[in-house]
Amino acid sequence: MDILSEKIYCRKCKGKRNMSVINTYEEYADEESHEHWICKYHITKCLGCDSISFVEDFQGDETSEWNGDEIVWGRLYTVYPPEPILETMEGPFKITPQEFRNVPKNLSNLYDQIIESYSFKHAILCTAGLRTLLEGICSHLDIKGGHLYDKNGVKLPDNKDIIREHTSLGGRIFGLFENGLILLPQALVLQGVIKFGNNAIHNIQSPGYSKLFEIIEIINRVLYDIYELKHHDFIKDK
Questions:
Q1: Which of 17, 6, 19, 20 is nearest to 59 (CA)?
Q2: Confidence band for 18, pLDDT divided at 50, 70 and 90
Q3: What is the CATH number of domain 86-231?
Q4: Interior CA angle at 161 toward 156 and 166, to 5°?
Q5: What are the extents of the domains in the chain?
Q6: Residue 196 in 3-state DSSP?
């Protein structure tokens, strides 16, 4: 029985386990390409629970190094189904989903999907979802528009030099500010979130992972301020 040289993540065991190889298909670099690699596709069985996984086993120039005497060929294993990022992510960019008791159900479900997308590094889906969440908040609160502002709180004219309300999502976000639901700095930052969301939807691009982390932290604060703070125990009904 062949066993992979490294323990591989098992989705059922929720940890890394030894895997036996049931069957293997191999591919090699084209001799004319001057590249050196071999990729093996294994059907494997977990020796802990007998569940089946698919493992890609890659060896090539990218995984090799010279030890002074000879080339040492390393291996890069990739397992499918993949190891969930939420269970393995460590360090400053790990996010724990917040529990919001008073956020509407449809917005709460969308929020959960955004955090899941972030955790699995589906950055474009996450970014587009954040923009959709902002639109959903405005729709739920019946905010249809607002003036545009600079960082000093001065209303900005449009391209015809007219100060007016805007029904775009950017205007609606400032409408949240005008209705006392968020602060001006929050409204200004959320304008950037809209731009990131538009870029994700139209150009299939997303901000970096650290930037997404910051955006989600801001969204958490906005959701709390709008939906949760007014229900705080320190606020007593008169």
A1: 6
A2: very high
A3: 1.20.120
A4: 55
A5: 8-83, 86-231
A6: helix
